[in-house]
Write a structure and sequence with these properties.
This protein is α/β, with parallel strands linked by helices and 267 residues long. It is 46% helix and 13% strand. Helix 3 (57-73) packs antiparallel against helix 4 (77-91). It is elongated.
């Protein structure tokens, strides 16, 4: 009886181990499918899944980072940095192995993108070329930004420091963000200034609708606003306000001059 019990316990452990491996493979495969789907839904230039799989360096950089991040968490620091540098050489994208990257993150084009060691990037974030998620000095500990879900960071933007960029926000092209950004805001300029608040986004999961996970994901992808051009310019707005005020003052002066001229004629 004892040998049979030993064998049964071993078989149960083996089946459980195989089940764990299968679940990990399913999770990995699901992540690959989600990454490719994110590219198809956010980039009109891609024509097929095969093209996305083979020709998008941002996708390759994300996949390489998952390996290096796993090694980094298991304290294999040197090998993780070596693989990270090889990935940077081939993709032009530098992601430190210590950074945390969420699901369905899309790095478009990607050349010049730098993501620091303690940076955290949430799900469904879109990052364009030349973006830096960096620190501001030689501080230790948390020194890079945290980017929440559904944020769009436009070309050339720099987000520097250990603060949070709130969910559903947009960072305009060339902006330099040095302080915390609330959720649902648009930031432009150097230094970055909030020019739009309370951008509305429909959260399907909280809307009370009975929807499948796949449909919910599609709705989330639809709601990501990738417009990098139609952002308000606070400097231009100030100039417009000044011009309007000058025009109003000139009209007032003209009226006063006419009034004085009529008075002189009556005298």
């Amino acid at each position: 009886m004892e040998p049979r019990e030993a064998v049964s316990v071993y078989s149960i452990q083996r089946r459980f181990f195989v089940f764990e491996i299968k679940s990990e493979e399913e999770i990995m495969f699901r992540g690959v499918v989600e990454d490719i789907r994110a590219i198809r839904q956010r980039d009109p230039a891609v024509r097929s899944n095969v093209e996305a799989f083979l020709c998008y360096p941002g996708l390759h950089a994300i996949w390489n980072h998952r390996l290096t991040h796993w090694l980094y968490k298991h304290r294999v620091f040197l090998l993780s940095r070596i693989i990270s540098n090889i990935s940077r050489f081939f993709t032009g994208i530098e992601i430190h192995p210590g950074a945390t990257i969420g699901r369905r993150v899309f790095i478009d084009h990607g050349t010049g993108v730098v993501i620091g060691e303690t940076a955290e990037v949430g799900d469904d974030v879109t990052i364009y070329q030349g973006v830096t998620l960096g620190g501001t000095g030689k501080d230790t500990g948390k020194r890079h930004p945290t980017i929440m879900e559904n944020v769009v960071i436009s070309s050339g933007a720099k987000v520097l420091g250990p603060f949070t960029v709130g969910a559903n926000s947009k960072i305009g092209a060339g902006s330099v963000v040095l302080k915390e950004v609330p959720p649902n805001c648009t930031v432009v300029g150097v230094p970055g200034r909030i020019v739009v608040k309370d951008n509305k986004r429909v959260n399907v999961e909280e809307s009370g609708k009975a929807v499948k996970k796949e449909d919910c994901l599609k709705e989330i992808m639809k709601d990501i606003d990738l417009d990098q051009v139609g952002l308000p310019d606070p400097v231009a707005r100030q100039f417009e306000n000044l011009v309007k005020r000058i025009e109003a003052l000139e009209e007032k002066l003209e009226i006063e001059k006419k009034g004085k001229g009529e008075e002189d004629e009556t005298l």
